[in-house]
Design brief:
heterodimer, A: mainly alpha, 49% helix, 4% strand, globular, B: mainly alpha
Chain lengths: 306, 49
């Protein structure tokens, strides 16, 4: 079986985000300088192998530290202490995290969702399991914007608690479960009811991933939502040349987020995986960085570039 | 979807704003400690402490 280049890049993304195999010997979660860098994909930084930070986790953490509650509702002295230590630099972290997410979004839209996000790779692979498939109703896409606004931005600032991370299934899969199996040196107390609630959310999404295309990206990913909001302004553009398209529908078939590239080449839902571009028998789909009003579409009239 | 000159201008404006925020955050300093400390909060998030 031939593995496509995108799959190799996705696996490389998993490895780039989680190369701290030293944990297996030391059982100490990495907290060095590289943790100060946001990985441009959804990768839990509580994962024992994680080297970098989750941008959405960092965003909430900064907002929680800048909150009037400042960790007051956090359970336990360890957390309250960490919150106090970080308070003074919370605004610097907030500027850094928002700037980093924003730059990625303006430059490439959701390109990195399609190419390096570890949770995206998991969804792509699980959907390959041969089962009956579901089509998600279009309104479910608004869920991710709600999750971003309420769970990742508003509530962390009001309550001082990172609510999105608390419910995030990527955190359960990449952080909670590995830490239960291979606990760190400092002992962890037994898992409480909240842990089991998180397991329930994870199982729900895992089942949905088998049945439908990238359900988490489309309905619940706060990082995807923030990048999607910037997609209309992004410099990475998709184009479809109408005169070449023979409406064979192959692009729709291979699309991992079920969009019609012909109708809207620069849809906020598009993860820029470029599967449609590879699958188009007529070469009607093109893409690239466009810094002006006219790109390659100037020579051939293409949708998406004027 | 076509790209208007307004969207292009907004793209450059957003690029400048986000780059400015990133540079300001880097220049302010201390952000890396905040992010590294986030792991402790995260352990709480995943229901383990």
């Amino acid at each position: 079986m031939r593995v496509r280049p995108r799959r190799w890049v996705q696996f490389a993304g998993v490895l780039a985000a989680n190369p701290w195999f030293i944990y297996l010997g030391t059982r100490t979660i990495y907290q060095g300088r590289a943790k100060g860098v946001c990985f441009p994909g959804l990768n839990c930084y509580a994962c024992p192998l994680a080297l970098m930070s989750c941008p959405i986790g960092s965003l909430q953490h900064s907002l929680a530290l800048a909150s009037p509650q400042k960790g007051a509702r956090a359970s336990g002295e360890i957390i309250a202490q960490a919150a106090r230590q970080g308070t003074t630099n919370a605004y610097a972290a907030l500027l850094y995290v928002v700037g980093a997410i924003g730059l990625v979004g303006v430059l490439s839209g959701r390109l990195l969702c399609g190419w390096i996000c570890p949770f995206g790779l998991l969804q792509d692979l699980l959907f390959k399991l041969p089962t009956p498939k579901l089509t998600l109703p279009p309104w479910t896409r608004f869920g991710k914007y709600l999750a971003l606004a309420v769970l990742a931005l508003l509530l962390p600032h009001i309550t001082g608690v990172s609510w999105y991370s608390r419910l995030c299934p990527a955190g359960t899969l990449e952080g909670a479960l590995p830490l239960k199996v291979l606990p760190p040196k400092s002992p962890l107390p037994p898992a409480g009811w909240f842990f089991w609630l998180k397991i329930g959310i994870l199982v729900f999404f895992l089942v949905l991933m088998v049945l439908s295309k990238r359900p988490f990206c489309r309905t619940a990913c706060a990082l995807g939502a923030s990048l999607a909001l910037l997609t209309p302004f992004s410099f990475y553009r998709m184009d479809v040349a109408e005169e070449l398209c023979n409406s064979c529908g192959r692009c729709r078939e291979v699309c991992p987020v079920d969009i019609d590239i012909f109708d809207n080449p620069n849809s906020p839902e598009c993860v820029r995986c470029l599967e449609c571009k590879a699958a188009c028998p007529k070469g009607a789909v093109t893409s690239g960085f466009r810094t002006g009003l006219r790109g390659r579409g100037a020579e051939s009239p293409a949708r998406g570039v004027t | 979807m076509t790209r208007s000159s307004g969207a292009l201008k907004a793209g450059y404006l957003l690029l400048a704003v986000f780059a400015g925020m990133l540079i300001l955050g880097l220049a302010w300093g201390g952000f890396s400690q905040v992010l590294a400390n986030g792991i402790v909060i995260c352990l709480d998030c995943i229901g383990l402490i």
